[in-house]
Amino acid sequence: VKGGFASFMDKEIHDQPKAVADTLLGRTDPRGALVLDELRIPEATLRSIDKIIVIACGTAAYSGHVAKYAIEHWCRIPVEVELAHEFRYRDPIVGPRTLVVAISQSGETMDTLMAVRHAREQGASVLAICNTHGSTIPRESDAVLYTHAGPEVAVASTKAFLAQVAACYLLGLYLAQLRGTKFPDELREILEDLHALPDKIQRVLDDEEAVRHVAQKMADEESFLFLGRHVGYPVALEGALKLKEIAYIHAEGFAAGELKHGPIALVDEGQPVFVIVPSPRGRDQLHAKVVSNIQEVRARGARTLVIAEDGDEAVVPYADVVFRVPQTPSLLAPLVAVVPLQIFACALATAKGLDVDQPRNLAKSVTVE
Ligand code: BG6
């Protein structure tokens, strides 16, 4: 069942090119326009929504965090991301023009389900992004966009996360098409970039030995920090979560710009810091800003583990280790940037002799509030 891999998590990390490809499959018509057949919310409703609220827990919430950047950029609709258990208890402003997107691998997470019910009671339309056919959250939602990651066994989510992010991109592109916020040729170009991702993810997996080797040598570390900006920020949060979940190591993700407002006080001699570096080809200043964040932590003694694009030489002088990912348009980069972090956590936990598939105190789906 594990297909020759040491753990389900390891196998599921390697399933990711297929999980993303299958999630993208069959969602365009012969002219290249997006068709989301399952999305049974009337087009008129989707045209009139003035706000999107993503609700989810854990890793699924981080996929929503990536979605916020993409959907706001492509569709110019405000997107909030909220942990499902917080959403319900804070009197959220939700109405008929709100689209609530509930993301859940299992479709059974009670916190998310209760938030779905609450949103529908307030008159919102609810779209579920879910990996499990016929589960409760899609059944109680107005519509569902299924991820096709296949069954995920390991408690710590990997392939479901990538599939959720891919589904969120599809939703964003579909809304942009429907609302006319992007030209058809721009949309086609982004879709082509998206369809190139499974091969790029495979290239990251082909380089996994380098990541494993570093992870195995760091099994005795007590704490890791993760820094990222823009879509690299949720990637940093997810990288930290993986280490907490399966390696029981204290790990925290921060927005890199926040460093100087507090977290940099944590950095002293030898502190390992992962930095997710945006593409140097982006039109903004983000790349330069993040490179200077690497310099800042390094100057205070940090050991820097840098995730950077192929060909990005600017990071080399300040990196103790560089893990390379293929060149990818900024908004889509989480699909490659998170993969070395998953491999790292899995290899480190395995080196510690831990059961990576069944971490202590955690369940695959939490069906109590
Ligand atoms: C947690 C799982 O309990 O629930 C995480 O351990 C998962 O891996 C989270 O991300 C949300 O689960 P789901 O099924 O709603 O995506």
From TrEMBL:
The active site is at residue 364. It is found in: Cytoplasm. One of its GO terms (biological process) is protein N-linked glycosylation. It is an enzyme of class 2 (transferase). Its main location: cytoplasm. GO terms for cellular component: cytosol. Keywords: Aminotransferase, Cytoplasm, Glutamine amidotransferase, Repeat, Transferase. Its EC number is 2.6.1.16. The keyword Metal-binding does not apply. Residues 41-181, 214-359 form the SIS domain. It catalyses: D-fructose 6-phosphate + L-glutamine = D-glucosamine 6-phosphate + L-glutamate. GO terms for molecular function: carbohydrate derivative binding; glutamine-fructose-6-phosphate transaminase (isomerizing) activity. Catalyzes the first step in hexosamine metabolism, converting fructose-6P into glucosamine-6P using glutamine as a nitrogen source. Homodimer. This is Glutamine--fructose-6-phosphate aminotransferase [isomerizing]. The chain holds residues 247 to 615 of 615 of the full protein.
